[in-house]
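Researcher: Before we compare anything, I want clean individual predictions. No alignment, no superposition, just each chain on its own. First chain goes here; please echo the sequence and then give the structure tokens.
Model: Echoing the first chain and its structure:
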Amino acid sequence: MSLTDSPALARLGVLTAAVGLGSAALLLILAQATPSTAAFLRCALAIIALAPFAVAEVSRRGLPGRRTVAVAAAAGAFLGLDYIMWAQSVYDAGVGVSTVLISVQVVVFPALVWLLHRQHPGRLFLWCMPVMLVGMLLTGGAFGVDPGATAPLRGAILGVLSGVLYGVYIYGTYRCRVLDPGLIVTPVLVATTSAGAVTLIGGLILGGFDFDLGVGGWAAMVGLAVLGQAGAWGLLAVFSTRLPVTETASLMLAQPITAVLLGTLLAGEQLAIGQWAGIAVVIAVVWLVSGGMRLLRTRGRRPAR
């Protein structure tokens, strides 16, 4: 077994990706970029990072099919809208809340597979949906908010909408893997380019482009593009297929947990008790829907060595 096939290395890769994605909101705060600027630069800088790997992949495995390109581009359009809404949500509701709310994607993705491909997600999924809604309401501030949040209601709404769009994007990447299983980076590059075009158009319509970020701001944006997008998705593309789906999904819980911890410890956020309860509910639902109980049962049946 080669080093890259090691389950321990795969777990480390997925966990690193989750922590990188979880740090994205804090990096956005540190960059002090406007939502339009942050959304556009996140894509533009990620394109630069992804392009060499995509070129190498195409030289080895050939160009993607037309359907793959079309699906990736459509998914990227949803991702671009997601980035615009999410960036505003971070400023409105905070680092932790905005990241936890996009966890609604774990409901959206299976729902799309169910509706479009008749793959029933199971009874547990249906039971978890109303519980997830309660968790979202609590996290969004139904019973108290962080006093430092500037627009908690708008931030909560945008965070949930961002998660819905994110779920559509994940469905698109899933379809790309089905259509062209040999390609990993190239569909991500196509989607990121499409997302960049959408964020550019959105920024021109909404206004707010400001690229005078200073050295620290640009460093934070580069970190966001690499750690919170290109690097994270690259690690997931390489290592997530080397682990059971349930284990990958459970490790990805590090994303919202990282965001909440960073928001509390470094961004000075003071979440209300109701929001902490909502975060706990959302994380528990994500764990259940992602197969957490099944993973525990599987490990419990392993013979002792």
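Researcher: Okay. Second chain, same rules.
Model: Second chain and its structure:
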Amino acid sequence: MTLTIFIAAILYLILTVLGIYFLPSMSVLIYLSMIYLLPLVVNYVLVTTRKQKNEKFTLSLVLPVFSTLFYAAFSWATEKFGTWLAFIEKNSMSSDSLTIEIDPNGFDTAQIIFMLLTYFGISLALYFLLNRKEVKSGEKYA
């Protein structure tokens, strides 16, 4: 399990660095996929590779912390280096019928708490769904 945690730390470090570097050229859809979808997929893959139930549960609690740290580090760094403002300028637009505005403060406490709850909620829900699926499979063939 230590190797899995190490792999997660390296993946999130790489994701943070690449995200900071490529943020000014990202579309909003890619940005949202990177902060919402990709951490969930990474966590899901890392949890499902474990065989023991207690390891899966531990990873279901540890990996959302890594996801949140990734988001916090990414948000802080993009604001500090000015890439967040470049992203906002590129992706904010207004026309007669549509206005798209991006919050200038991505490193907000409320946003970080929201991300933490999202990552934990989905991670634990997936754990319980996977656990339930394993129990049903066991009953089916017993």
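Researcher: What stands out in the second chain?
Model: Strands lie at 93-94, 99-100. Additionally, The chain has a mean pLDDT of 89.
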